[in-house]
C-alpha cells in the first residue's frame, strides 16, 4: 500500500514536471506572439484609419464647398436672369405691377422678396410699403455695383428683425450699370442645405464666414443667432480647440483637417474654402464612430489569442501525457529493481516493447535487465550452496593444521585484504562508469525527441508560408475587381454630370421663355381687346415654361443626389483600394517574418546536431574509461593471486595446510555474504 502511494506520488511529480513545462512554454509563446501581432496590427490600422478619415473629410469638405458654390452661383444666376427683364427699369410699368410680378415670382421660387438698389446706395424692397434704406457701406452692394455678382453673409433684416441672406447682381441698361437687383432669402437657407448632408451616423457639416461666425448649421439656432466660435471660446473653454482650428486654419482659407473636443465629444473635422464667397465649408464626425472598427479588431484579436492559448494548452497537455505516461511506468519498474524487487510483471509496459523510439528501447532494456538479474541470482545461489558444503569440509581439515599455519595465515590475510580492497574500489569505479553510460543514453533519447519536435516546427512553418502566399494572391485578385468596379462608378458619375449640365440649359431656356411670355402678356394688356387672344397664348406659354422649370429643378435635384452618391461610391472604392494595398503590405511583411522564423529553426537544428555529435563523443570516452577501470580490476585480482603464490613459495612446508585453511575461511565468509545478498532479492 505504501509503495502504491509512492508510485502515484512520483507519477504525479513526473507528469506535472513535463506537462507543466511544456504547457507553460508553448502557452507563453502563443500568447506573446498573438498579443504582439495584435498590438502591431491595431496600431497600424489605427494610424491608417485616422489618416484616411482626415483625407476623406478634406475631400468631402471640398466637394460640399463646390456644391454650395454651385447653388449660390445658380441663385445669383437666377437673380441675374430676372434683372435682365425690362420690367425692372421700365418706368412705364407701374410700381404695383412690378410688385405683383416680383412677389409672385418670389412666392414661386421661395424668396422672401426682391429689391433694387440705385447708384446712391438706396435699397428699395418691392412691396406695397416701398420700404427703403441705404446700404452703400455693405460689401455685397459694393461688389455688385462694380459689375460682379455677390452674396451677403447672414444678417438681421432691419425691417423684419429676422435673419436673411441676399443674392445680388448688377442691373444694366444698354450696357450701363443702373443699379443692383437683389433677392432676399430666409436666414435658414444655408442651414437647410447643410442639414441635408449625410455622412455615416454622426457626420455633420456647417458653414462659417471669415470671422468665425456660423451662417449655416444643422443646428439652425447657431446660424440664426450668428454664433461666433472664436468669441465663444473666450467665455467657455470647451470650444477652445475648435476656435483654434477656425482661427489658425479655416479663416485663412486653408484646405485641411483637425481634431477637437466639443461638448464632451471627440470629433474630427475637414474644411475647405467656398470659392467666390468669404465662407468656409466644414465637414466632420465623431471620433468614436471612426474607431469603432478598431475596437472591434482589438476585441477580435484578444478573443483569438485566448482561443489560440486554450488550443495550445490542450494540444500540449495531450502530447506531454503521451510522453510522460510510458516514462512513469518504466521509472517505476527501474525503482523496483533498485529495491531488489524482480517480481514485477511487464504487462503494462509490454505495449511499448514494439516501439522503435527511445521509449521502446528503454522498455526492452528493462525487460532484458530483469531476466539477466534473475538468471544471475539463481546461478549465484547454487554456487553459494556448493561453497557452503565445501567450506564445512575444509574447516574440519584446517582445524587440524591451524596451529602450524596461524602466523602465516595472518600475514597472507592482511595482504589479501589489501588486494581485495583494491579490487572492490576498481569494481565501484566500473559501476559508476556504467551509471554514467545510462545517463548519456537518456540524454541521447531527449535529443532525439528534440529533433522530432524541430522537424514538426519546420513542417508547420512551411504550411504557414504556403498560406501567406495564397493570401497574397487573394489580395491581388480583390484589388483587380475593386479597380473594375471603381471605373464603372466613375463613368456613372461623369454621365450624371452631363445630365446636370443639360438640365441647367433647359432651365435657362424655360426662364427666358417665361420672361418672354410675361413681356407678351404685358404687351397684350396694352393692346386692349385686340390682344386678348395673344394674352391667352402667352399665359399658356408661361405656364408651360414654369412647368418645364419645375421639372428641370426636380431633374437637377435627382442628378445632384445621384452625383453625390456616385462620388461617395468613388471615395469608398478609393478607400477600399488603400485598405487592400495596406493589407498587401502587411501580408508581405508576415511572409518575411515566416522566412526569418525558418532561418532561426534551421540554426536551431544545426545546434541540435552539434549536441548529438558531442553526446556520441562522450559515449566513446565513457567506454574508454570503463575499459581502463576493468583493466585495473583485473590487475588487482592478479595482485591478489600473486600474493598467494608468494606465500606458498615462502612456506613450502605448510602449503597444503595453508591452502586448506585459507580456502575454508574464504569460502565460508563468501558463502555467508552471498546468502545475505541473495535474501534481499525477490524473484
From TrEMBL:
Membrane topology, record value: Multi-pass membrane protein
The family database entries (PROSITE patterns) matched by this protein are listed as:
CHEMOTAXIS_TRANSDUC_2 (PS50111), HAMP (PS50885)
Q: Where are the transmembrane segments?
A: 300-319
Sorted alphabetically, the keyword list is: Cell membrane, Chemotaxis, Coiled coil, Membrane, Transducer, Transmembrane, Transmembrane helix
Question: Which cellular compartments is it found in?
Answer: Cell membrane
GO process annotations (BP) = chemotaxis; signal transduction
Enumerate the Gene3D superfamilies for this protein. Methyl-accepting chemotaxis protein, PAS domain
Report the coiled-coil segments. Answer: 601-638
Asked if Metal-binding is a keyword of the record, the answer is no
Residue limits of the HAMP domain? 321-378
Question: What is the top-level taxon of the source organism?
Answer: Bacteria
- InterPro entries noted in UniProt: dCache_1 (IPR033479), HAMP_dom (IPR003660), MCPsignal_dom (IPR004089)
Q: Which residues form the Methyl-accepting transducer domain?
A: 397-654
UniProt xrefs under Pfam families: dCache_1, MCPsignal
**Family label:** Belongs to the methyl-accepting chemotaxis (MCP) protein family.
Q: In its UniProt entry, what is this protein called?
A: Methyl-accepting chemotaxis protein
- The source organism is Clostridium tetani (strain Massachusetts / E88)
Amino acid at each position: 500500500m505504501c509503495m502504491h502511494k509512492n508510485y502515484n506520488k512520483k507519477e504525479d511529480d513526473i507528469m506535472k514536471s513535463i506537462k507543466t513545462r511544456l504547457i507553460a512554454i508553448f502557452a507563453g509563446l502563443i500568447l506573446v506572439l498573438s498579443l504582439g501581432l495584435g498590438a502591431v496590427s491595431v496600431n497600424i490600422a489605427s494610424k491608417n484609419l485616422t489618416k484616411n478619415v482626415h483625407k476623406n473629410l478634406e475631400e468631402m469638405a471640398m466637394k460640399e464647398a463646390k456644391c454650395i458654390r454651385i447653388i449660390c452661383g445658380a441663385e445669383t444666376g437666377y437673380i441675374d436672369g430676372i434683372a435682365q427683364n425690362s420690367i425692372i427699369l421700365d418706368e412705364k410699368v407701374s410700381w404695383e405691377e412690378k410688385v405683383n410680378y416680383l412677389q409672385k415670382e418670389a412666392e414661386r421660387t421661395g424668396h422672401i422678396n426682391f429689391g433694387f438698389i440705385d447708384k446712391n446706395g438706396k435699397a428699395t424692397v418691392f412691396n406695397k410699403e416701398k420700404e427703403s434704406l441705404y446700404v452703400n457701406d455693405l460689401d455685397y452692394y459694393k461688389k455688385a455695383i462694380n459689375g460682379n455678382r455677390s452674396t451677403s453673409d447672414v444678417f438681421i433684416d432691419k425691417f423684419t428683425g429676422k435673419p436673411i441672406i441676399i443674392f445680388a447682381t448688377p442691373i444694366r441698361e444698354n450696357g450701363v450699370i443702373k443699379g443692383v437687383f437683389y433677392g432676399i432669402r430666409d436666414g435658414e437657407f444655408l442651414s437647410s442645405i447643410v442639414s441635408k448632408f449625410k455622412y455615416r451616423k454622426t457626420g455633420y457639416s456647417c458653414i462659417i464666414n471669415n470671422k468665425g461666425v456660423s451662417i449655416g448649421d444643422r443646428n439652425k439656432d447657431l446660424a440664426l443667432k450668428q454664433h461666433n466660435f472664436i468669441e465663444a471660446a473666450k467665455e467657455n473653454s470647451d470650444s477652445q480647440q475648435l476656435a483654434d482650428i477656425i482661427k489658425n486654419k479655416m479663416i485663412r482659407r486653408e484646405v485641411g483637417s483637425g481634431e477637437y473636443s466639443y461638448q464632451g465629444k471627440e470629433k474630427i473635422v475637414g474644411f475647405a474654402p467656398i470659392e467666390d464667397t468669404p465662407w468656409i465649408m466644414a465637414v466632420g464626425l465623431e471620433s468614436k464612430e471612426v474607431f469603432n472598427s478598431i475596437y472591434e479588431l482589438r476585441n477580435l484579436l484578444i478573443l483569438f489569442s485566448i482561443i489560440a492559448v486554450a488550443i495550445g494548452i490542450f494540444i500540449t497537455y495531450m502530447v506531454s501525457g503521451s510522453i510522460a505516461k510510458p516514462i512513469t511506468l518504466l521509472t517505476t519498474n527501474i525503482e523496483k529493481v533498485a529495491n531488489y524487487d524482480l517480481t514485477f510483471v511487464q504487462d503494462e509496459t509490454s505495449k511499448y516493447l514494439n516501439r522503435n523510439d527511445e521509449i521502446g528501447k528503454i522498455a526492452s532494456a528493462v525487460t532484458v535487465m530483469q531476466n539477466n538479474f534473475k538468471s544471475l541470482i539463481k546461478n549465484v545461489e547454487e554456487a553459494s550452496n556448493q561453497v557452503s558444503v565445501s567450506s564445512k569440509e575444509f574447516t574440519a581439515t584446517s582445524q587440524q593444521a591451524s596451529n602450524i599455519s596461524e602466523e602465516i595465515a595472518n600475514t597472507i590475510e592482511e595482504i589479501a585484504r589489501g588486494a581485495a580492497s583494491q579490487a572492490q574500489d576498481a569494481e565501484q569505479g566500473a559501476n559508476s562508469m556504467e551509471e554514467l553510460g545510462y545517463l548519456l543514453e537518456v540524454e541521447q533519447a531527449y535529443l532525439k525527441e528534440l529533433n522530432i519536435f524541430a522537424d514538426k516546427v519546420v513542417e508547420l512553418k512551411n504550411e504557414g508560408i504556403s498560406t501567406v502566399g495564397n493570401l497574397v494572391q487573394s489580395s491581388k485578385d480583390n484589388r483587380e475587381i475593386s479597380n473594375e468596379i471603381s471605373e464603372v462608378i466613375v463613368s456613372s458619375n461623369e454621365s450624371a454630370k452631363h445630365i446636370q449640365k443639360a438640365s441647367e440649359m433647359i432651365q435657362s431656356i424655360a426662364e427666358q421663355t417665361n420672361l418672354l411670355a410675361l413681356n407678351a402678356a404685358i404687351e397684350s394688356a396694352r393692346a386692349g381687346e385686340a390682344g386678348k387672344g395673344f394674352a391667352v397664348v402667352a399665359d399658356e406659354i408661361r405656364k408651360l415654361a414654369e412647368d418645364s422649370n419645375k421639372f428641370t429643378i426636380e431633374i437637377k435635384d435627382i442628378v445632384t443626389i445621384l452625383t453625390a452618391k456616385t462620388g461617395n461610391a468613388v471615395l469608398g472604392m478609393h478607400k477600399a483600394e488603400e485598405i487592400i494595398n495596406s493589407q498587401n503590405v502587411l501580408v508581405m511583411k508576415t511572409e518575411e517574418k515566416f522566412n526569418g522564423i525558418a532561418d532561426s529553426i534551421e540554426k536551431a537544428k544545426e545546434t541540435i546536431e552539434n549536441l548529438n555529435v558531442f553526446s556520441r563523443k562522450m559515449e566513446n570516452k565513457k567506454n574508454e574509461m570503463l575499459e581502463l577501470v576493468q583493466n585495473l580490476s583485473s590487475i588487482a585480482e592478479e595482485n591478489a593471486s600473486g600474493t598467494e603464490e608468494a606465500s606458498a613459495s615462502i612456506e613450502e612446508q605448510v602449503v597444503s595446510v595453508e591452502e586448506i585453511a585459507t580456502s575454508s575461511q574464504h569460502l565460508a565468509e563468501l558463502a555467508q555474504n552471498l546468502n545475505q545478498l541473495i535474501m534481499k532479492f525477490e524473484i
